[in-house]
Design goal:
The chain is α/β, with parallel strands linked by helices. The protein has 6 helices and 11 strands.
């Protein structure tokens, strides 16, 4: 998988290191020269581009056309939206993930603006891309927005009715969003055609009521 990360602060740098260490190809874009120098010193193996990720010529330099995912984690919401919009609408990148810095701007982070997944907690993106996720039934990893929304994990049991089903056929409610599937050592950003398999570790963002529906759909039939 090839991932372009725009924003080389603590979140972006951590993501880049995590993905590089687990074998992913990563390009990191950062516009602050002093930060680029530091990242290159800390991670000489990482491809780092100095420039503004909102500029198409910088995205061209990052080979965004070949990217499986673009992650926008700058400290500015407007930049993150622009990056995702360009990536999705101009370059047709399959998956875009954006960091929300100001919760008041959350309404802007939607598919019509090119954002597939919007996350308001700066640590959530790291959780989504971690290779090592604890096994369990449904495990709450993070509580967001005063507990109204949660990032949860469920491991697909052998006897789950969802085994062999495509995501688009699961009939999950709108308040449940599947954000990643870990199959063996492979991390998958799910599409409607993604077929779930027994043992898959699935991360989802859901409300409290949606969690019950998620358990019913993906949980064991016992």
């Amino acid at each position: 998988m090839y991932v372009v990360i725009v924003g080389g602060g603590k979140v972006g740098s951590y993501l880049a290191k995590m993905l590089t260490d687990t074998g992913y190809e990563v390009t990191l874009v950062e516009e602050r020269k002093e930060q680029v120098v530091k990242i290159r010193e800390d991670m000489p193996e990482l491809n780092v581009i100095l420039g503004d990720g909102c500029e198409p010529y910088i995205l061209d330099e990052s080979r965004v056309l070949k990217a499986d995912a673009v992650v926008a984690v700058t400290g500015h919401d407007e930049d993150n939206i622009v990056v995702c919009m360009l990536a999705k609408l101009e370059y047709e990148v399959p998956n875009t993930i954006a960091r929300i810095n100001n919760p008041k701007n959350e309404w802007l982070f939607r598919e019509s603006f090119g954002v597939d997944v919007a996350l308001s907690n700066t640590h959530m993106i790291a959780k989504l891309l971690q290779e090592e996720i604890a096994l369990g039934d449904i495990v709450t990893l993070l509580k967001l927005r005063k507990g109204d929304v949660s990032l949860v994990e469920v491991t697909l049991a052998d006897d789950s009715a969802a085994v062999g089903q495509a995501v688009k056929d699961l009939s999950l409610p709108a308040e449940v969003v599947l954000v990643t599937v870990i199959h063996g050592n492979e991390l998958i950003l799910p599409k409607g055609t993604t077929v779930l398999q027994a043992g898959d570790e699935i991360l989802a963002v859901t409300t409290g009521t949606g969690e019950a529906a998620l358990q019913k759909t993906l949980g064991s039939s016992k």
